[in-house]
Amino acid sequence: MIRAQQLTRRFGALTAVDQVSLHVPQGSVTGFLGPNGAGKTTTMRMLCGVLTPTSGSAWIDGIDVTVSPEKARAKVGYLPESAPVYPEMRVVEYLSFRAGLYRVRGSKQAMEQVLEQCGLLQVRHRIIGQLSKGYRQRVALAAALLHEPVVLILDEPTAGLDPTQIDSMRNLIRNLAEDRAILISTHILSEVEAVCDSIIMIAGGHVLASGTLDDVRGDSGGCCLVETDLETAAALLENLPGIQSIDRMTAESGWYRYKVNVAAGEDPRVIIAETIGKAGGRVRELHAQQRTLDEIFRSVLSTPGAKDREVHS
Amino acid sequence: MNGVLTIANRDFRSLFLSPAGYIVAALFILISGIVFTREIFLPGQPASMSSLFDFDAVLLLFICPALTMRSICEERKQGTWELLVASPPGMGSIVLGKFIAAACFLLILLLLTVPCVVLLEIYGRPDPGEILSGYIGVGLMGGLYLASGILASTIAGSQTIAFLLTVFFWILVGLAKVGIGAFGDQLADALFAAEPYARLQDFTTGLVDTANIIYFLCGIAVFLLIASGLLELGRRR
Questions:
Q1: Do B88 and A78 touch (CB under 8 A)?
Q2: Which of A210, A239, A274, A290 is the most exposed place for a label (fewest CB within 10 A)?
Q3: CB-based contact (8 Å) between B201 and chain A?
Q4: Residue B79 CA to its chain's centroid (Å)
């Protein structure tokens, strides 16, 4: 549905997006992660036709955005970061304006549907400028959904919403994903875990990691929590196969807590217990943990390659 | 060219929703009314609107940029520009839609001066051909100002700059005529041909010259084409 190959965008001497390739299939919600200035918004703008790529290509539902931009734009529903709307218009006025822009057939019906989907039925005749931030965000989303786009590109859709609004926005996004391809940018990592089934991590204009959540988690390994009364456990465990590093966490009344970072696909729990036992120590707690997206994100960002590229771009 | 009317419709309504639109309209009617009663609607004066048209042409130099200064600047500022650019209509359609909206508003302003003509008709015997030609001239002149104002709105970063840019541009064009002797004959001719005021004089005295109509229409087209070209370039820059 959304496909990009070697997408590059330069602003003068600055390369904001450098050879980004991505694929978002139908029925999937893909999270686009990265620190500020990573190139997320620029990539999204290229996919929506707001900016023309310097080089590379992108396809929306099989239509090349550089060859027939108008057709491609008609297939995308776009929600920019600030969720801009015309403050002086009424909700229904704005929606019918958008329906005209996209030549929506049966626009009355389509409007009723998005008003209901986005929970706007009660404010339909209100002036947008007088609505709260959450409602304005929903109006912008409703406008993006009006022409039933096959592709949705949402730039930080939950920014500035309160917790209940965030929850309903996430539910809405999950429901919408059934027959669409959705690309969401965010830097709230918990949001990705809540809504997305795959992710693309980007920094300095480069894709650093991509795949389903499980793939990315699997690639980056996991960790074990160990609590033992053996003071020298860290030095012992460090040399075991499959163990990358050990962080000492806390110590209280003779018990030491370690976080053991494990390479991808390894489960050294049995060996850890045995090693400590042989050395005469006791184990009070031992369990494997999946690394949080937060940790993966930081470790991906701190790999030497990523740092390098960030500096050069 | 799809979406032109949708965009024109929205912009036209928004001119009515903003106080600027009403202030501009009120000012125009007030000043036109004063000029009409002080200069034209007097015993012994010829029943001709030409002095009002001449005055309105000057007034439009300030009114037209005020109508167009928001058109693109404001959308950029509130972020709606990005949404407009992401929608199917191309830059040409967007610019044309915005021009049509402003032109319709101008048309309404001009129609509001029709009661003056009715008064003249009741108390005198004006030449309807001359009046109609004057309206066409002022309308075309206003259209030229609007088109240049839209171009200024695409270049300028703020509404104020867009307004000043348009006004100063046309004042400079007018001044060029004053300093015309300093240039060579050919350049003087070229400048004179590019200057709209003399052409308006033809219209207000009842002379509808095809060359003048073509001049104004081409001027409007050139400004709008440059504007949409620059905006299209903005996608690539």
A1: no
A2: A239
A3: no
A4: 27
* Cβ–Cβ pairs < 8 A, chains A and B: 71
CATH number of the A2-217 domain = 3.40.50.300
On whether ipTM exceeds 0.90, the answer is no
**Tokens 């992710």 belong to residue:** A199
Domain A221-290 has CATH 3.30.70.3190: yes
Among residues A278, A295, A229, the alpha carbon closest in space to that of A258 is found at: A229
Residues of A in contact with B89 (CB under 8 A): 70, 101
Question: Considering all CA atoms of chain A, what is the largest pairwise distance in Å, rounded to the nearest integer?
Answer: 77
- State CA B221 to chain mean position distance: 13
Three-state secondary-structure class, residue B156? coil
CA distance A195 to A84: 23
CA angle centred on A297, ends A291 and A298, rounded to 5°: 95
Give the nearest chain B residue to A129 (CA atoms): B78
- B79 vs A: CB within 8 A: yes
**What is the CB neighbour count within 10 angstroms for residue A271?**
15
Provide the residue type at B128 as one letter. Answer: P
CA distances in angstroms from A178 to A25, A150, A185, B69, listed in the order given:
11, 10, 19, 44
Q: Does A105 touch chain B (CB under 8 A)?
A: no
Instruction: Extract the tokens encoding B101.
Output: 């909206």
Do residue B82 and residue A73 have CB atoms under 8 angstroms apart?
A: no
Across all residues in chain B, what is the average pLDDT?
89
What is the number of residues in chain A?
313
Please give the pLDDT value at position A213: 80
pLDDT in tens, chain A (313 residues): 899 999 999 998 888 999 999 999 998 999 998 888 888 999 999 999 999 999 999 999 999 998 998 999 999 999 998 889 999 999 999 999 999 999 998 888 999 999 998 889 999 999 999 998 888 988 999 999 999 999 999 998 887 788 888 888 888 888 888 889 999 998 788 888 888 989 998 888 888 888 888 777 777 677 888 888 888 888 888 888 878 788 888 778 888 888 888 877 777 888 888 888 888 888 888 888 777 777 777 777 776 555 444 433 3
Burial grade of B68 (CB within 10 A; 0-12, 13-18, 19 or more): buried
| Residue A87 at interface with chain B, using a CB cutoff of 8 Å | yes
Residues of chain A with CATH 3.30.70.3190: 221-290
Supply the pLDDT for residue A268.
81
Q: How far apart are CA B20 and CA A268, in angstroms?
A: 73
Q: How far apart are CA B181 and CA B184, in angstroms?
A: 7
